[in-house]
Amino acid sequence: MEGMQAYGAGKAGGAFDPVTFIKQPQTILRIVSWLFSIVIFGCIANEGYINRPNEVEEYCIFNRNQNACNYGVFMGSMAFLCCMAFLALDVYFPRISSVKDRKKAVLADIGVSAFWSFMWFVGFCFLANQWQVTKREDNPLREGGDAARAAITFSFFSIFTWAGQSFLAFQRYKLGADSALFSQDYMDPSQDAAGAPYTSFSGDDLESPGGGGQANSDGAFDGTGGYQRQEY
């Protein structure tokens, strides 16, 4: 039973190995997505707002559309938090003993990752379109151009990193669903053994091979169990 896994993790209670955890494909993709979100958020928040030389108020670098910058900043910050949450879940996941809870966690991973992949696709299209129609006279000094292109580029890459996470989560789901050992009511054996009540041993539970241990024992000493004296 040591080699069996439930939804991509071994039985609960095992020691946490940081090296093995970091080398897992899902962990690598989460860290990469986490870094991409930081880059997108930082590029737009720091250099995504510019103004003309004769203006004081700053506008979004993407066609002066505030919604474009707001979308990028919101997506970057929320993706950052989501990556942190799922990394924490990955660390805790092997300690979950109930297969039902593991199934819920994997299904949540599939849905959330697919959702973020779609949202980054929308964000990439939105930012790329607004950057394409941006007027040169709105930014005569060409400020923030590299940051805008970086935000668009990493938005595009984020589509595939989140899609990869969803795919890996689906593989984990299939691994758990196809396993005949883990039924819906399966609990980890180590948890069952720990929670099982202790039954004390009693000598009264033993019986002689003849089935009447106590009766035979009494009859051996009271002299009335059929013993016949011999006359000499």
UniProtKB/TrEMBL annotation:
Keywords: Membrane, Transmembrane, Transmembrane helix. The keyword Protein biosynthesis does not apply. Residues 21-174 form the MARVEL domain. Residues 193-232 are annotated as: Disordered. The chain crosses the membrane at residues 31-51, 71-93, 105-131. The keyword Phosphoprotein does not apply. It is a multi-pass membrane protein. InterPro entries: Marvel, Synaptogyrin. Its main location: membrane. It is found in: Membrane. GO terms for cellular component: neuromuscular junction; synaptic vesicle membrane. PANTHER family: SYNAPTOGYRIN (PTHR10838), SYNAPTOGYRIN-1 (PTHR10838:SF7). Belongs to the synaptogyrin family. This is Synaptogyrin.
